[in-house]
Amino acid sequence: MRPVLYGICGAFFFAFTFILNRSMEISGGSWIWSASLRYFWTVLFLLIIVLVRKQLVPLWKIMREEPLKWLWWSSIGFGLFYAPMCFSTAYAPGWLVAATFQMTIVFGSLLAPLFYVNIETAEGIKRVRSKIPFRGLSFSLIILAGIILMQIEHAKDITGKELLFATIPMVISAIAYPLGNRKMMEVSGGRLHTFERVLGMTIASLPFWLLLSLYGLFTEGMPSSQQTVQSGMVALFAGVIATVLFFRATDLVNGEMTKLAAVEATQPVAVLFALLGELFFLSADIPSLLSWAGVLTVILGVILHSFASRKKAAKSFMLSKKAESVR
CA-CA to 213 of 20 to 30 Å: which in 104, 142, 204, 258? Predict the structure, then answer.
């Protein structure tokens, strides 16, 4: 029960990303500063944590091995993930952005052939391309169906152009996040813990954020003090507290696949928290029954996908153990 509770608490703090981004947009703040300032704050918070852990020097050594890869994949994994998300918030409620972002699960499966896994064969360890888990894609279709239901309802109140501006950037975001993060995990080779890797990626993505900020300075002017503070809150709540809670939850399950699936299935609860947050704090309109059906369909799809994925992982683990015992 405790791991699931930690997971739900993590989803609660992650929801502040969507609530505060929407709040900044409604208050007249630019999406450019909402995106950039969040990562400037993140560097500060994570730098303190990594310094306390005495892991800054090892991180710097690993980053110097392949600096261009760090720069490229971090800009994709963080830059092309978060900037489009903030852009979409100008055209859709935060809860809808949160729900649409669940597409990352679908694209995460479709991107599998771009990555390699090590498998044990009679001839030794071989590195082969991952395969698309077609069985798991059936649950991904449930997620997509829920997103379509919500977007259909949202499309009634906006123009076709606004619908594209709300949706296309989220597709980019949902692809960039798993692509950039998985590539960086390959580059770091499992030598870094979560905080060190995220700090490294944040530092490596700074050129992206500095260029975006420069563009914002000339087109939008300086951000307000309110937007600066709220961006810092997003960095603290989503970038630090939510991360700590979620990984504390995964540590508690100690590799038990069913419990791990239960923890991962708590993440779409952030959609509900984002929706409730907008209703209470931003006086947002109550979603229609069709939108509610879409939200619940997305959550159901994510839960089923999580348990199906962990069941497959557990089966593969047992087969490998059986093979070892035979040898």
Answer: 104
Question: How far apart are the C-alpha atoms of 119 and 126, rounded to whole Å?
Answer: 5
DSSP string covering 155-209, please?
HTTS-HHHHHHHHHHHHHHHHHHHHHHHHHHHHHTT-S-HHHHHHHHHHHTHHHH
Say if CB 83 and CB 212 are below 8 A apart: yes
Q: What is the pTM of this model?
A: 0.87
pLDDT value, residue 60: 96
CA 301 remoteness from chain centre: 17
Residue 175 corresponds to which tokens in the numbers above?
A: 């692809």
- The encoded tokens of residue 118 equal 């090590």
Q: What is the pLDDT of residues 3-34, one digit of tens each?
A: 888 888 999 999 999 999 999 999 999 999 99
3-state secondary structure of 297: helix
**Token code pair at residue 70:** 């760090």
- HEC-encoded secondary structure of 90-108: CCCCHHHHHHHCCHHHHHH
Residues β-bridged to residue 119: 126
Residue 126 in contact with residue 119, Cβ under 8 Å? yes
Tens-digit pLDDT profile for residues 288-298:
899 899 989 98
CB 153 within 8 A of CB 294: yes
Total Cβ atoms within 10 A of residue 8: 17
- Distance CA(230)–CA(21), nearest Å, equals 8
3 state SS for 21-61: HHHHHHCCCCHHHHHHHHHHHHHHHHHHHHHHCCCHHHHHH
Span 221-255, pLDDT tens digits: 999 999 999 999 999 999 899 988 887 787 777 65
CA gap 304, 105 in Å, rounded: 12
β-bridge partners, 120: 125
**What backbone torsions phi and psi does residue 127 show, to the nearest 5 degrees?**
-100, 115
Q: Quick one: tokens of 305?
A: 């996908």
Contacts of 261 (CB under 8 A, 6+ apart): 306, 307, 309, 310, 311
Residue with tokens 């392949």: 66
